[in-house]
Amino acid sequence: MNIDLSNRTALVTGSTQGIGLAIATDLATAGATVVVNGRGADGVADAVAELRGRLPDATIEGVAADLATAEGASTVMAAFPDIDILVNNLGIFGSTPALEISDDEWRRYFEVNVLSAARLMREYLPGMTARGWGRVISIASDSAVVIPEEMIHYGMSKTALLAVSRGYAKAVKGTGVTVNAVIAGPTHTGGVEGFVAEMVGDELPWDEAQREFMRRHRPQSLLERLIEPEEIAHLVTYLASPFASATTGGALRADGGYVDSILP
Fold first, then answer.
1. I need a surface site. Which of 83, 123, 239, 240 has the fewest CB within 10 A?
2. Confidence (pTM)
């Protein structure tokens, strides 16, 4: 299967590192013009330089803005008003005992993980429908379905993101635009390395630490290892392609078999 995204422009939110950077890389490899986003100008510049170095024939742009705010969204939309592929990857996570999650934390997780995506969908979908083609992919999590005891606020936000994606898919039915979510399983990123150390200690070598983490805290995984960011990116790139024209309103899993259900 040769995925060709030439003449398409993709915005990947929160894409200066981790899963977002892997998605940006995969989309650019497929020929899309890719807009990298992060909160800090230095981080965006570094990611853009890295991608241009790795993919000299690709067109890579960057925009620094905090998309958890309306002001940040306005900055991005003013710079790039016509987006064909929107990947809502921006998200935060962390562990907090259930009875210690404050009102402010509940609000922060909703604003960053849910409202940022809903806002961009609301603003970019009209242009996509007018052009008769578009792709929206939001990065959810196994935690949307299997709520983790140590991060209920995170799970709540990812469950809400599934609902938002399904609802917007209905809003653009019959237009040539698709809206989907990807349920990502436990994935190997820098932030997750810190989370693993927090959960199992930092005395073990990384390979042992991640397997201990999976054994103790994510025993449902059929992979019995963390997923690499590129494995998430490949599914996103497929969903962004013309080959996925009949897939919309879905919650597709790249979770390593973590969710113990035939359907999400």
1. 123
2. 0.94
